[in-house]
Amino acid sequence: MTTRCQKIAVALGVAALALTGCSSNSKSDSDKIDVGVLVITMFDPENEVWLQREQLPTTVDVPGAFKPVRCNADKLCVAETGQGKSNAATTMMAILGSDKFDFSKAYFLTAGIAGTPPEQGTLGGAAWARWVVDFDLGNHLDRAAAPDVPFGFRPVEEYNTAAYQLDGSLVEKAYEWTKDAKLTDSPDAAAERAMYPGQEGRTPAVMKCDTMTGDDFFSGKFLSDTAGYIMKDRTKGAGTYCTTQMEDNATATALKAHGYLNRYLSLRTMSNFDQPYPGQSVVQHLDQSSGGFKIALENQYTLGKTVADQLLKNPPTN
User: What is the distance between the alpha carbons of residues 230 and 171, in angstroms, rounded to a whole number?
Assistant: First the structure.
């Protein structure tokens, strides 16, 4: 009970608290979990690597959230939103609106896996997003019926959630903290890379580029090029498409609604290519087990942990 409510309780009696807007069940600031970094994962494999490596003894059930939030005394918390924009938006709004946490000084870090176009990234590589752009919003037209519309896409309007530019200084700090990190690789990933022109001999590295959010898990060169076109259109030429995922615009929208967007980082490690290799069908591509999956999970934790530790120990002053 807050000091104000305690004074009212003495004057009027506890039964009158409800009439004053106070409640014996409401949390004072001292009762809330002080969050320094909230790591945001999307599905079980991403989440489990954090739960297995970190000591997170406090479990917080949040009504409306996909899974409980796990926290420790070092002010690190880890959440799992569920896959897709609807799950991510619902979970993030529930968590950010909960009276169980104090986010007033928190940073927010998406740590997840993604697809990548083979002309940009490679399996196991990592990207810090400068722009987060929505693939779905706008008109997607039948190309045969609208041959004069590039990639069959018309943006129609700006919307409010189609493109977010993240805080450049924060992105730069995350990149500097991680650019020389040793990333995990594997023979399976190397063999898969070798099937793609220009990929043989590449190894995982950390990049700064931009991420595309879409509820469809797409496969194919044309859709990959479409994503690149939409990225350029939405960012007025400033963005470079290098990862594809299903949640980050929803997460950014919830953070913006609560005034936290300037403290948000999106890290995506590359678990698969967004198109088949020559001679492989799109169905075969989607049905295969990518050689990049395990190393992408490992690398999202390695880099995410590095940045979370930096933000907890030395949070930026600006």
Answer: 22
